[in-house]
Amino acid sequence: MSAFYREKVLSVQHWTDTLFSFRATRDSGFRFQNGQFAMIGLEVDGRPLLRAYSMASANHEEELEFFSIKVQDGPLTSKLQKIREGDTILVGRKATGTLITDNLIPGKRLMLLSTGTGLAPFASLIKDPEVYDRYDQILLVHGCRQVSELAYGEELVAKLRDDELFGPLLSEKLSYYPTVTREPFRNRGRITDLITSNQLFSDLHQGPLDIETDRIMMCGSPAMLEELKQLFETRGFKEGSGNTPGHFVIEKAFVER
């Protein structure tokens, strides 16, 4: 167990029957870059039961926050969804992940494309002042099936808009675009289709996809990631990594269980 911090749950919020978030204490020794993930979980029968979770809190915050789905028969989430204030969670000491700005070639517009709980690393990144220094525009897209599943992201952005520090930055640079696929809503459709048809950019009164200026981060369902990767690669975009920065990066450690 020495590979983990033992952190205390401070609060839990259930957003829908399938989504919840929670905050926990943060050891002063735990360091991470905004957009990264760590292995977190519970001690079950004396052994750690873990999954990869992106930090939804920024690295300058004193507490940790995570955004999770509930899977009724999931080995971890079936138990994790029942945590309460005062419970103990395990947090791996090492953070990692590809969704960091150094893995991208410099650009002017940063597109953060997410589905479901794939929003979590971007919740961290849009609270990073350095991201606003690096880019002229930041476009946060969150795709869900139903309107109720957008609640976490909508509250996150609303709070930041009211924040003394981030409010002016958001009003100048951040565009938030929630979209759903299975219910009536002001924005409808899958992210791939919205980009291909230019509907996304038209709705936001922004220019179309441009390899010279656009840089992209993606986190979400495996199907969505594969579709978007193919879309961007056919247009000449190159995937970046810690060794070689590129036009886009993908987080593949997505929690689905």
TrEMBL record:
Which reaction equations make up its catalytic activity? 2 reduced [2Fe-2S]-[ferredoxin] + NADP(+) + H(+) = 2 oxidized [2Fe-2S]-[ferredoxin] + NADPH
Q: Which residues cross the membrane?
A: none
FAD-binding FR-type domain spans which residues? 2-102
The biological process GO terms on file are: cellular response to oxidative stress; heme catabolic process
Q: What GO annotations for molecular function exist for this entry?
A: ferredoxin-NADP+ reductase activity; nucleotide binding
Top class in the EC scheme: oxidoreductase
Pfam families recorded for this chain?
FAD_binding_6, NAD_binding_1
User: What keywords is this UniProt entry annotated with?
Assistant: FAD, Flavoprotein, NADP, Nucleotide-binding, Oxidoreductase
The cofactors it requires, by name, are: FAD
Q: Which domain of life is it from?
A: Bacteria
UniProt cross-references to InterPro entries, sorted A to Z = Cbr1-like_FAD-bd_dom, FAD-bd_FR_type, Flavoprot_Pyr_Nucl_cyt_Rdtase, FNR_bac, FNR_nucleotide-bd, FNR_type-1, OxRdtase_FAD/NAD-bd, Riboflavin_synthase-like_b-brl
Q: Which CDD domains match?
A: FNR1
The Enzyme Commission number assigned here is 1.18.1.2
The record's similarity note reads: Belongs to the ferredoxin--NADP reductase type 1 family.
Report the protein name in the record: ferredoxin--NADP(+) reductase
List the source organism: Bradyrhizobium brasilense
